[in-house]
Amino acid sequence: MQIDVITLFPEMLDGFLGQSMMKRAAKAGHVVFNGLNLRDFTEDKHRTTDERPFGGGPGMVMKPEPIFKAVESVRTEKSRVILMCPQGKPFTQQRAQELSREEHLIFVCGHYEGVDERIREALIDEEISIGDYVLTNGVLPAAVVIDAVVRQIPGVLGGEGAAEQESFSEPLLEYPQYTRPPEFRGMKVPEELLTGNHAAIAEWRRKQSEKRTAARRPDLLDSRRAESGDDA
Prior knowledge:
Layout lengths: L1 E6 L3 H7 L2 H8 L4 E6 L12 E2 L9 E2 L1 H11 L4 E12 L2 H7 L4 E6 L7 H6 L3 E4 L9 H12 L32 E2 L2 E2 L9 H19 L1 H11 L4
Parallel strand pairs: 1-2, 1-6, 5-6, 5-7
Antiparallel strand pairs: 3-4, 8-9
């Protein structure tokens, strides 16, 4: 997979993409990352990427010309162009899995008060939001989506089935995890996990996942029941 990120601040991605799982995924050849500085696609001496909105109002709006040029410099027939913005659809684990099967993703990071609407109309295939809150720019949201997507690419996590067992994959939150020592400051590891009985362990984990999901994200259980046709 190739991932291009178009932003005014490509340096913000350097630390993130050069560490941990993203670094290993790139080194192993699972993904190629490329940051494009939007100012490189301007033509005036001030490298202008924004202007005041027609009709008045606060803030500045991203100009269409640099973004069109940046996208067109890397887009192919197999590209999917994604705009990170508050108006986008909420990002989910399912969407991360779907995007991991794409060959080329282009992320357009919004800045200031947003982008010229003609960018949405003519360039963008999909708009994504990571939550109902405001951030300085779209780089951090793009990084979140990239992380969730890349770890779904086969071979990135190493262990077979590792990605499928993570939270939201069923959809359920992940069950509690324990490691050594079996007792710490009076707190003991549940007996079910110490028996070596794989069926009992699987059943305990299933129940714990459902319990945790019911307490923290009941909407996921409702979605699960709807998909299975179970109204109970």
